[in-house]
Design a protein that fits this description.
By secondary structure, the chain is an alpha+beta fold. It has five helices and nine strands. The N and C termini lie far apart (42 Å). The mean pLDDT is 91.
Length: 201
Amino acid sequence: VLVLENDAKDYQGKAEVFAALVDAVLEGHKVKVRYRSPKGARSEDEVFFPASIGLYKGGLYVLAVPPGDDGSGATWRALERVEAPPQVERRSSLRPEVRRRAIDDARSRWGPARPRGREQVITLHFGAAAAPYVLARPWHARAEAEAWPEALGGGLRMSLRLSGQTDMFESWVKSWGAEVQVLRPREMAERIAADLEAAAR
């Protein structure tokens, strides 16, 4: 796999890891991997069912369902942090309904966000300059965007339902600068405003 993006991560030497995880996804088998957490200095063994492979901002991730979980607790694991080809256990398989729930739940989040947190409705207003770029591609499986009347300020409104942590989503919102306004929830708007004010200072 060659990821043609300027910010793509380095997967040199990870071909066997990727191949084994893809096979495990397709066959539904459980794996044991040596995983180095971004927060921890040391690596630890993790056991999970890989439900899917995802691509986010030049990075490959595996959707990991813990044994005994119903799919709602699945988390994304960065492929470059898997330190060796996984050990595959072929005696047990991921149930189809658990896989479906894990994937559906992951689609309700933003990128590889963690599943913690309640679902919330977020509404954004983009200015006229940003509107063509926002409409040019689908940003989220549960987002709806519509052009806004000129009499009401023009641009477009986007509404989406997100569950889980919103750190990555808020970072995306901030990347639009003055071209976007968070209409709701209010606490998100205030949090983003405070971050931008701190950056300006």
